[in-house]
TrEMBL record:
Source taxon at top rank: Eukaryota
GO BP of this protein: positive regulation of cell population proliferation; positive regulation of macrophage differentiation; positive regulation of monocyte differentiation
InterPro entries, per the entry: IL-34, IL-34_sf
Name used for this protein in its record: Interleukin 34
Segment forming the signal sequence: 1-25
Keyword check for Lipoprotein: no
GO terms for cellular component: extracellular space
Gene Ontology MF annotations: macrophage colony-stimulating factor receptor binding
Lineage: Eukaryota, Metazoa, Chordata, Craniata, Vertebrata
Keyword presence, Transcription regulation: no
Protein source organism: Oryzias sinensis (Chinese medaka)
Pfam family, one: IL34
Length: 212
């Protein structure tokens, strides 16, 4: 009898853990806030380095899926049921590591924005390092929802296999703006309400659900 109740307790404990797991994983680990704020400090100079140091209307070629804005987040939340924020966060890292690489590639060693962008990339990688460390490895092996997997596959495609119609011309400034605005919403726990005011409309709870 005693044994039985003990095992029930144990089982209950395990169930509790499982039930809690998704909740724990959707929020941003507190350890990410420091590197995110450091990245945010760099991002505050983006107008100067991503716009003023480039010719007017200068744009670079990116994959269609490398345009990842707030509207994409709301659309994905509508399309994919119970979409975990962690999935969107993984996508954010995947998109933006490619974006930063592409921006750096168009600048010569002596370009006035080169060291700024290299620092931005370093700080971005620091955030990613903490992100990976603060979740169990299994999380990153979990299957992605189909629609997200499809986007992921396009993002990791070799450039010479990307169809002409799937390339877009975008200014470095708008790419980095996208990185910044989506960061405020996907890691909102690390930013104050004023900074993340644009997230409200795109947030999980406020996303308008189309009635069936
Ligand atoms: C992030 O940067 C913005 C713009 O520079 C600033 O207003 C905001 O206070 C910063 N937030 C944090 C948490 O560092
Ligand atoms: C830049 O783009 C805007 C909007 O498309 C256009 O009106 C303007 O003439 C362009 N400027 C240059 C210098 O190409
Ligand atoms: C974001 O939306 C645009 C416009 O619909 C689309 O072309 C792009 O592929 C989307 N990005 C992602 C990461 O899904």
């Amino acid at each position: 009898m005693v044994q039985k109740s003990a095992s029930v307790c144990l089982l209950g404990g395990f169930l509790g853990l499982f039930l809690m797991a998704p909740v724990l994983m959707t929020s941003t680990p507190a350890s990410m806030c420091t590197p995110l704020k450091t990245l945010n400090d760099s991002l505050s100079h983006r107008r100067r380095y991503m716009k003023h140091n480039f010719p007017i209307n200068y744009s670079i070629r990116v994959y269609r899926e490398e345009i990842f804005k707030l509207s994409n987040i709301s659309r994905m939340r509508l399309k994919v049921e119970e979409l975990d924020d962690l999935v969107l966060q993984r996508l954010w890292f995947q998109v933006n590591q490619g974006v930063l690489k592409k921006i750096i590639r168009v600048m010569s060693e002596r370009h006035p924005s080169r060291s700024y962008t290299a620092e931005l990339e370093r700080r971005f990688k620091d955030v990613e390092g903490v992100f990976v460390q603060s979740h169990p490895a299994e999380v990153f092996q979990q299957e992605l929802p189909e629609a997200v997997q499809e986007t992921w596959d396009h993002l990791t495609e070799e450039p010479d296999r990307v169809q002409e119609s799937n390339w877009r011309l975008v200014s470095p400034k708008s790419l980095v703006d996208n990185l910044c605005h989506t960061m405020y919403c996907l890691f909102s726990e690390c930013f104050d309400t004023e900074t993340r005011q644009n997230c409200e409309y795109h947030s999980k709870d406020k996303t308008f659900k189309i009635p069936l």
